[in-house]
Amino acid sequence: MLDRKRTTVDWIDVVWLLFIIGLAFLPPINEIHKQLILVTIGVFQFFEGRLIAGLPKRGRAYSVLIKIMLATLLLDHTGEMGINSSYYPIYYLPVVTAAIYFGPAATLFWTALTSLAYCSFLYPALQDYELTAEGSYQLAIRILFFFLAAMLVNRFVVENRRQVARYQALSQTLEETNRQLQRAEAEARRSERLAALGQLSAGLAHEIRNPLGVIKGSAEILAQKLKDSQPLSSELAGYISSEVNRLNALVARFLDFARPSNLDLRAQQISEIVDRALESVQSQSPNANVRIERHYAPALPEILADEQMCERVFVNLIQNAYQSMEAAADGGERVLRLSIAPESSNGREGVGITVEDTGPGVPLDLREQIFNPFFTSKKEGVGLGLAIVAKIVDDHRGWIRLEDNSAPGARFRVFLPASQEKS
Ligand SMILES: Nc1ncnc2c1ncn2[C@@H]1O[C@H](COP(=O)(O)OP(=O)(O)OP(=O)(O)O)[C@@H](O)[C@H]1O
Ligand SMILES: [Mg+2]
Description:
Blueprint: H1 11-24, H2 32-54, H3 59-76, H4 92-101, H5 104-119, H6 122-128, H7 133-225, H8 231-258, E1 265-268, H9 270-284, E2 291-296, E3 303-306, H10 307-327, E4 335-345, E5 348-357, H11 385-395, E6 399-402, E7 411-417
Parallel strand pairs: 2-4
Antiparallel strand pairs: 1-3, 4-5, 5-7, 6-7
Helix pairs in contact: 1-2, 2-3, 3-4, 3-5, 4-5, 4-7, 5-7, 7-8, 9-10, 10-11
The structure holds adenosine-5'-triphosphate and magnesium ion (MG).
Adenosine-5'-triphosphate (ATP) is lined by residues 316, 320-321, 324, 357, 359, 361-362, 370, 375-378, 381-387, 410.
């Protein structure tokens, strides 16, 4: 790349050095100033990269300026009159350097300045000699060649720069597409896992439900019958009944997760659904001491959604946020941030909803697993909350992601397509 900072010596610099050594062995050979200037040009060539790296703003201009000065000095020491020196092509050095570093206008400016430096030798020469027509043509031709070389090199460099920018943009697009593909693959894998587990749990839950009903009914009858004659047995039968209730609730959750989706889709305002979900969680944990921050964009598009299912999505997410902040022992402020804004994803219009908490967040190694059914890090957890969320969001043709979050806490982002969208 042209803008690459050259801080190391490369082979081109060595070739440069060889050219300069060649010049040193051409007449006037014993002119010490000439040799010194050539050495300076050679040394400067080595350190030019560092100068530009050290002074990224002005380094290039300084570099061209120094080369003009060195070239002028060289001409001064290689001819009786500088204007007649056969070393005048040394001026191609600053001219080409400017053409490489700058755009067309600046290249013209630097070439004009170089030509001016060259013409400055006219002044002492005109003191003793007259400028012939032949001489002035030659001077004009030389200067015009400076401009020709400058514009040719610059054109090539600018075109090259454009190509590099094009390839960079292309590679960025490719990278982004690659990332999207990987994400889509991960989501597809998750959906497959969910589908397989869903079928299994549906079958199991269904089979368990019937015997549970019989056990519960029998336990209740036993408790009733033994209430007076055997109070201890009656109490035990009561335990059976209440534990069956718990099992039933669990089975109901399995079925929630596994049931083939039968969505009752209607146009809904997502902010109302999120607010209802929040109220529901708040009523379950009234002493949670969580500050709520709402960032709802005005004029949100309606979404086509099953109201109850969607509410479940946000109840589960908000519940997790509350639980994670309760579990955090640091005693810091607990904040639940809910944001809703219009969003487009892969060309589809919809709304993006973010649920963000100030809890401990999800450890990096668990990020892939938290959406798996029955994955839980909680004592009392079942591990179905996020699996249900993912399934409902999938059924709505949206997506859910746990976002990278540099701040502590977890940030879940849900996308749901707008209702006007045609399927
Ligand atoms: N906001 C959050 N902050 C930190 N970890 C979270 C958060 N939300 C989810 N997790 C992690 O993801 C795991 C799975 O969550 P999920 O809701 O599926 O199950 P659960 O909350 O453990 O149980 P339940 O089935 O009762 O919801 C949690 O156990 C927890 O480790
Ligand atoms: Mg949960």
